[in-house]
Amino acid sequence: MPIDIEGAHANIPRIEILFDEGYHLIDIREPDDFRIGHIPGAYHLSSKSDFDE
Predict the structure, then answer these.
(1) Residue 36 located in a structural domain
(2) What is the pLDDT of residue 1?
(3) What is the rounded distance in angstroms from the CA atom of residue 34 to the CA atom of residue 31?
(4) Count of structural domains, the chain
């Protein structure tokens, strides 16, 4: 069942299957958005600051 997280959309059953298979979820939203809410177990990677170097 899809759920909404501030600024994101996720299909939780599919994500659980991917986690069970060893995949990782990377959230590339702004840091403030990630702090407001994210899928448990997700890693944050800011596309602006982490790739500008």
Answers:
(1) yes
(2) 47
(3) 5
(4) 1
**Rounded distance between C-alpha atoms, residue 7 and residue 52, angstroms:** 23
Residue 50 located in a structural domain: no
Q: Identify the residue with better confidence: 24 or 52.
A: 24
> Side chain identity at 4, as an amino acid letter?
D
Amino acid identity at 21: E
Phi, psi of 34, rounded to the nearest 5 degrees: -65, -40
List pLDDT tens digits, range 1-47. 445 555 556 777 888 888 889 999 888 888 898 899 888 888 999 87
**Is residue 26 one of the residues assigned to a domain?**
yes
pTM flag (> 0.85): no
What SS3 state is found at 7?
A: coil
Q: How many CB atoms lie within 10 A of CB 51?
A: 9
